[in-house]
């Protein structure tokens, strides 16, 4: 069974590729490159590549995903399902895409270049890029020697903060709870990441110390004065948010930093500043400059967990009084908790982190990806005219990609689902698809089975992961602050 599709990068309203497509394109490119050694200024640098190699491979890029399994109707036969995705672009477009990879901090120059005008320029993956590649390889079961050697290198230390995005627009979620959670990571939820000295000669680069676990580098505003605020430079903040989060555009970083300012978590810091100068700095918004400093406010220290809040709540605001359950909804239902978590970006981010720590992240990943697949399926079916064959073919290719990653026997992220449902999926996915009306019928059958698999995974997360997540001391306090129990009563459960 072989399903092919040509991948068209979806673009957002502000003219950038959707993040997931962008990361998949990047990872597919990296897998296609030899990632061998190159000499730069008399040094031999491992796991590198040139501009020429990148642009040549981007001109015609293919990624195949296969899975071998016994035929459900005849176990003596082996059936192979293969999905091949093709990216293609002109050379100038390839250079533009490479520049986006550079701007997103997925790659960096080894020889000091800032663009791709020279074919012989040498590049390497950043720790952020390696994290993205690693997750792509885990999902798709990729185990190639040159990739494994790269991911086993000591530079692969980044633990990215995975930001939640709107599936329709790809925009980041910026509600107050989400900003608080991101700020905890940014500031360092175990305490400030202090520099040894506040000397201006010190580097503000995060590259030698940041792994996504510690916060942005800070220092006391006045050396030796424990009452002076913790301060950091604008460029240090920009670098941390760009290097340690799944941001892909500098505009997202500025939006996030300005959200910190607007929430009164940080404020401009000017030594011996006057009120007017402070107001001027505030009015101009966040500046990513080494000459501009920001201080963590008292509210910011409370949100970061550095100091206790006398009111007992993170935001110095009384939590809403729990409402009585309505419409027969039980507040003790883990199914309802699961529904609330999936709908709330901040809770979903925390739940994703918990699942990653407990090696169950594939459950949430599958649920979210199937939701996206079913939305694409509904859009294809809703049109006034019959769905175009290339649309149906691409949607089916997405289904086979999901199946090979999560549901096929022996798949890299194989899920624990009902045996009968697994056999039904195997029976459908190993049958030929056909053309025209038969293809649409096949897609209808696949969508129905995927909907059932999604429901099965939802129940598994609700019964097994949600209770443990709610009891975990690392997350329990944040869940109380978010007032999860009250949300169960106020959110209509569908």
UniProtKB/TrEMBL annotation:
Residues 212-290 form the DEP domain. SUPFAM superfamilies: Regulator of G-protein signaling, RGS, Winged helix' DNA-binding domain. InterPro entries: DEP_dom, RGS, RGS1/SST2-like_Fungal-DR, RGS_sf, RGS_subdomain_2, WH-like_DNA-bd_sf, WH_DNA-bd_sf. Residues 337-479 form the RGS domain. Keywords: Signal transduction inhibitor. One of its GO terms (biological process) is intracellular signal transduction. The keyword DNA repair does not apply. It holds the Pfam family DEP. It comes from the Eukaryota. Gene3D superfamilies: Regulator of G-protein Signalling 4, domain 2, Winged helix-like DNA-binding domain superfamily/Winged helix DNA-binding domain. This is Regulator of G-protein signaling-like protein. It comes from Dothistroma septosporum (strain NZE10 / CBS 128990) (Red band needle blight fungus).
């Amino acid at each position: 069974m072989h399903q092919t599709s040509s991948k068209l990068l979806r673009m957002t309203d502000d003219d950038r590729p959707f993040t997931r497509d962008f990361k998949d394109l990047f990872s597919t490119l990296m897998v296609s490159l030899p990632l061998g050694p190159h000499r730069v200024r008399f040094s031999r640098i491992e796991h590198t590549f040139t501009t020429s190699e990148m642009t040549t491979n981007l001109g015609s890029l293919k990624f195949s995903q296969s899975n071998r399994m016994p035929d459900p109707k005849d176990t003596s036969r082996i059936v192979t399902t293969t999905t091949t995705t093709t990216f293609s672009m002109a050379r100038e477009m390839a250079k533009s895409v490479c520049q986006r990879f550079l701007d997103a901090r997925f790659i960096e120059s080894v020889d000091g270049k800032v663009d791709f005008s020279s074919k012989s320029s040498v590049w390497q993956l950043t720790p952020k890029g390696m994290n993205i590649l690693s997750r792509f390889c885990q999902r798709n079961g990729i185990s190639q020697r040159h990739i494994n050697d790269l991911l086993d290198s000591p530079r692969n230390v980044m633990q990215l903060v995975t930001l939640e995005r709107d599936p329709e627009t790809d925009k980041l979620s910026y509600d107050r709870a989400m900003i608080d959670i991101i700020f905890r990571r940014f500031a360092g939820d175990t305490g400030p990441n202090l520099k040894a000295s506040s000397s201006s000669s010190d580097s503000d680069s995060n590259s030698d110390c940041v792994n996504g676990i510690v916060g942005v580098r800070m220092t006391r505003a006045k050396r030796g004065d424990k009452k002076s605020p913790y301060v950091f430079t604008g460029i240090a903040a920009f670098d941390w948010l760009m290097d340690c989060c799944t941001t892909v555009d500098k505009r997202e970083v500025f939006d996030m930093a300005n959200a910190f300012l607007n929430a009164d978590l940080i404020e401009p810091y000017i030594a011996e500043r006057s009120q007017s100068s402070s107001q001027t700095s505030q009015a101009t918004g966040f500046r990513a400059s080494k000459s501009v400093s920001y201080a963590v406010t008292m509210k910011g220290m409370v949100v970061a967990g550095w100091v206790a809040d006398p009111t007992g709540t993170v935001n110095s605001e009384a939590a809403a009084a729990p409402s009585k359950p309505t419409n027969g909804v039980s507040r003790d239902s883990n199914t309802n908790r699961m529904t609330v978590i999936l709908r709330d970006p901040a809770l979903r981010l925390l739940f994703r982190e918990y699942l990653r720590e407990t090696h169950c992240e594939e459950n949430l990943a599958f649920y979210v990806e199937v939701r996206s697949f079913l939305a694409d399926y509904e859009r294809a079916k809703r049109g006034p005219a019959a769905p175009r064959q290339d649309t149906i073919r691409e949607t089916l290719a997405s289904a086979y990609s999901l199946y090979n990653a999560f549901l096929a026997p022996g798949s890299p992220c194989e899920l624990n689902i009902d045996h009968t449902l697994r056999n039904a999926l195997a029976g459908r996915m190993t049958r030929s698809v056909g053309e025209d009306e038969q293809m649409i019928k096949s897609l209808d059958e696949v969508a129905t089975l995927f909907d059932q698999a999604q429901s099965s995974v939802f129940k598994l997360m609700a019964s097994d992961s949600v209770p443990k997540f709610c009891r975990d001391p690392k997350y329990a306090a944040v869940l109380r602050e978010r007032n999860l129990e009250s949300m169960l009563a106020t959110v209509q459960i569908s």
